[in-house]
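Case study B.
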Amino acid sequence: MAHSHAGHDHVWADDLTRNQELVLGALAHAEAPLSAYDILDKLRGDGLRAPLQIYRALDKLTERGLAHRLESLNAFVCCADAHCHESGSIAFAICEGCGKVEEFAEPVIESKLRGWSKTSGFVPSRMTIELRGLCKGCVASLPA
Amino acid sequence: MAHSHAGHDHVWADDLTRNQELVLGALAHAEAPLSAYDILDKLRGDGLRAPLQIYRALDKLTERGLAHRLESLNAFVCCADAHCHESGSIAFAICEGCGKVEEFAEPVIESKLRGWSKTSGFVPSRMTIELRGLCKGCVASLPA
DNA sequence: GCGTGATATGTTATTTAGTTACATCCCCTG
DNA sequence: CAGGGGATGTAACTAAATAACATATCACGC
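Model:
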């Protein structure tokens, strides 16, 4: 089962190294974001031992847009959208109830940010947009 | 109004505790964001010894909008805009050259994010918008 | 095949960031 | 003056990320 995936399929790049594949796999099977140490714990059985092994893989994966880092969580998710790297900036909605993350693109936001950058002479290299709150499901099941 | 200011002075709330004042002061005098441990180092002379003392003060300060946390940096800045807490969400442009941070508000962005939230049933409690890149000055002095 | 440079790996130790747990102190109010 | 809430102080700890160094792997030119 090297490549395909039940349900939602991912862009499995064919040239990932073993460690990168393991890390991406761990993220892909997780319901919620994982910290580097969470990933490490899941992969001890596969022979990974040190944080650095995870961080190195994560660096490559995020570079290529196959995974994303959630800054406000110090954690990582598998990219949910095959085309996200084409659409430039991505936003995340992080549920503080169930921990799940939704990834979405709002082109207008990106263009507004680029607009601000242009007028202030700032040259952006990376954009982070994260919402914290409660997802639909968690709001519904709130303590009445 | 009660706490107004000249020049680049701050909105000094009149009811800060000693530790909160020290921490806010440290941030206010810094050119760039400071980590909690940076702040601690600056305040050892004032009798502060433990990280927790800093974190507690920072919690209160960020709660009140007098300081902001930069998620992508694990660091803090003094709020630059007396009215930022009125305008809801704030965005930051972080220069990777000189380390300085610009704080700006883009109401359209906030409303777009609220729009997305509404349609997806997400109830946001906090929004993080951070740009990384190079400020005007640093771009200008780039290695030709 | 052989050298060589770029990239990926493995391992240990260390630094940086943030929290838990617990005791104390100060002030306000009844 | 009792008792509660908030701020403080201190030590020990967990979590996140990096430094430094040693090997291995692979592609490429010769």
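The radius of gyration of chain A is 17 Å. The remaining cases will be described in the next quarterly update.
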